[in-house]
Amino acid sequence: MLCPSGPASRPSAPGPHARRAPASPPSLADPAVARDPYPLYRTLRDTHPLLEDKPFGAWLLSRYVDVRAALTDPRLVAAPPGRGSARLEEATRTAYRALASPAVQGHVLAALKAGAERTAHVLARRLHRRHEADLVEEFCHWLPVAAVVAALGLPHEDTARVTDWCRTSPTHPGAVPDGLAALLRPHLVRRRAHPRNDLLSVLCAARADGRRLGDDAVTGLVAQLLGAGGEATDRALASLLANLLDHPAQLALLRAGPALAGAAWAESLRHDPAVHIVLRHALAPVAVSGGTIPAGATVACLVGSAGRDADRFADPDRYDLFRAVPGRHASGAGSGEGLGARLARLTAESGLRALLDALPGVAWAPGFRPVPEGLLTRSPAALHVRLR
Questions:
Q1: In this structure, what is the dihedral angle of CA atoms 303, 309, 315, 320, given to the nearest 10 degrees?
Q2: Are β-strands 58-61 and 76-77 bridged in parallel, bridged antiparallel, or unpaired?
Q3: In whole angstroms, what is the distance from residue 222 CA to residue 145 CA?
Q4: Cα separations (Å) of 68 from 38, 124, 303, 307?
Q5: 3-class SS string, the chain
Q6: Rounded to the nearest 10 degrees, what angle do helices 339-358 and 231-246 cross at?
Q7: CA separation for the pair 217, 93 (Å, rounded)
Q8: For a FRET experiment, which of 104, 157, 180, 315 has its CA 20 to 30 Å from that of 256?
Q9: Which of 129, 117, 216 has the alpha carbon at shortest distance from 176?
């Protein structure tokens, strides 16, 4: 029997001119991306500014200039909703026409601010005598929806039910969480007969096209406010707190100057947005810096990548609440700020002030490090802190 020995028994190494199998293009579908997407984002910005990611099923946009433009391009539209009725969607559009009045919008924002401040204070004071807590589970998870419930003047005991509905129901315009319409119905009857000093009374009295809003319109708008105050704000608030706890010197400056809360929020949206990927559908070909998006394509606008683009932001991986130009791409807004974005900002700033007032010694629990999770949306799953 012949027994190979020596060099002949091992596969020969490829020569200098041997062909290598082409490397697979990067993909969001790679499991490692959900653990840490930023290395992929950097590769995409540098070498694949427009990439058809077949495993993920979308064309990827990763540079700030392209993502910012795509989020306001009328040729790139949100995917049509999978649920909800045309009647409710039209009712919600009617409600937004009512909010076009500066007076009505002013009353709405005042009520939302009061609800956020009151709720944040209550939640923060509950932690005051504790030694440790998980701020995600005991603060961030509850504040956004509870603030809207308080502003509406609904019973506090409804908060848990409404929070669960908001986490399991669609949030596109016109979509109403299961059970919300039935919960609101008796309150709408009472507010129309006996208005109070709350947000639900403001909405019942608002007018569009010369008429008071109907129950469908008010219900649709309440659903939108609850959606805006839902999971995305919860996650964004968790990321804000994580960034500040990671930077004790900046947290100390914020304690000394609470007016910096807005800058801290804007920088956190850039550095660690809650929504990393916004999907759009191309109605027509769209030219971008890396080529042309074909008509009919699904487009993934990588907001998380745009916020770390070195062509737009100096030292983009650093969190700095004194950054001069944080940018507006995180919310997908153009030059203005929509009602949902203002609600999120009011909620986050109120929550931050309440925590700093109630918990002057808050810091990371010994040995704890936050671990962000998620692909489309992303934030720390827990924030374990010591409070004394």
A1: -20
A2: unpaired
A3: 11
A4: 18, 36, 8, 10
A5: CCCCCHHHHCCCCCCCCCCCCCCCCCCCCCHHHHHCCHHHHHHHHHHCCEEEECCCCEEEECCHHHHHHHCCCCCEECCCCCCCCHHHHHHHHHHHHHCCCHHHHHHHHHHHHHHHHHHHHHHHHHCCCCCEEEHHHHHHCCHHHHHHHHHHCCCHHHHHHHHHHHHHCCCCCCCCCCCHHHHHHHHHHHHHHCCCCCHHHHHHHCEECCEECCHHHHHHHHHHHHHHCCHHHHHHHHHHHHHHHHCHHHHHHHHHCHHHHHHHHHHHHHHCCCECEEEEEECCCEEECCEEECCCCEEEEEHHHHCCCCCCCCCCCCCCCCCCCCCCHHHCCCCCCCHHHHHHHHHHHHHHHHHHHHCCCCEECCCCCCCEECCCECEECCCEEECC
A6: 40
A7: 8
A8: 315
A9: 216
Encode the chain (388 residues) as per-residue pLDDT tens digits. 333 333 333 344 445 554 554 567 899 999 999 999 999 999 999 999 999 999 999 999 999 999 999 999 999 998 654 444 455 566 666 767 777 777 788 888 899 999 999 999 999 999 988 999 999 999 999 999 999 999 999 998 888 888 887 776 654 545 677 788 899 999 999 999 999 999 999 999 888 778 888 888 888 888 888 877 677 899 999 999 999 999 999 999 999 998 999 999 999 999 999 999 999 999 999 999 989 999 999 999 999 999 999 999 999 999 999 988 665 554 444 334 677 888 899 999 999 999 999 999 999 999 999 999 999 999 999 999 999 7
Q: Residue 250 corresponds to which tokens in the numbers above?
A: 């900046």
Which single residue is written with the structure tokens 């070909």? 285
Domains of the chain in sequence order: 33-80+88-386 (1.10.630.10)
Instruction: Please state whether 76 falls in left (phi above 0), alpha (psi between -120 and 50) or beta.
Output: beta
Q: At what angle do helices 159-168 and 215-228 cross, to 10 degrees?
A: 80
Can you give the length of the chain in residues? Answer: 388
Looking at residue 116, its amino acid is A
What single letter denotes the amino acid at residue 180?
L
